[in-house]
Amino acid sequence: MTVALSAKQKLSLVDGSYKKPEAASPLLPFWQRCNDMVISWLLNSLHKNVRESVLFHNTASEIWNELNERYGQSNKARLFQAQQAVSCMTQEDLDIANFFSKARKAWDEFAVVGATPRCTCSKCECQINTKLQNYDQEQRIIQFLMGLNESYTAVRGNILMMTPFPNLSQVYSLLIQEEKQRQVKSKYDFQSEGLLFQQTQAMLRDLILTEGLKEGEHLCFVTTAEELVTQQINAISCMDIQATYKEAEAEVSEELIVP
Questions:
Q1: If 0-12 CB within 10 Å is exposed, 13-18 middle and 19+ buried, where does residue 205 land?
Q2: Same domain, 173 and 242
Q3: Could you tell me the residue range of the domain that residue 91 belongs to?
Q4: Residue 17 falls inside a structural domain
């Protein structure tokens, strides 16, 4: 709202810096017209229930002050919320681009309510402002890296060991490249696993059919390689047991035949 009022050059009507002219002043009609215009903007931007509670104020500054006293937060409360948002932000299920946008929003809000002090004298030769700016940049990078998921532990360690230390834009670019490489690798691995599964399934089916089916046995329909392996092991085990039994039976028969 303050941005819109400033763009229309009407902010002085709500902050009280442009006082109401005297009754005999020729500027009074112009002030009244601008005041009524700003009141209409404020009322139209409010919820119906809130609008009815400030409907009978005569000036825009009265409405503004009433709303500020009723709903405005102290700077310390806003600073606490902004600092908490910056300190506790995590990536969770967001991608790098969306997480960076979330972090940028938190940093911008914190910069508004908790701006770092700057040197305003014109005689400063220690470049303290540049140093403070670099410090804020490094703090943002550390906060952003701390919020990444554990899957980025390796690339996070590589970034922290880089010399010279990259700026925020470079860190973002590195993480975007890492994310794209993972997406390509994941897609390739999925296709490779699918092809390997099809080949394994075909080989095991051929192996089972090549061994042949014993009398009374049947081949169950299977959909996974694990089921095929299990079925083949069971079939081979049954054949080994039958072969061992037949060998023992033949040895016993030979012993009975010998006088």
A1: middle
A2: no
A3: 75-184
A4: yes
Which pair of structure tokens corresponds to residue 76? 């310390």
pLDDT single digits (tens) 134-174: 899 999 999 999 999 999 999 999 999 998 899 999 999 99
By residue count, the chain amounts to: 259
With respect to residue 52, please indicate whether it lies within any of the assigned structural domains: yes
Question: Which residue is associated with the tokens 């119906």?
Answer: 48
What does residue 31 show for φ and ψ, rounded to 5 degrees?
-65, -40
Distance CA 250, CA 101 (A): 80
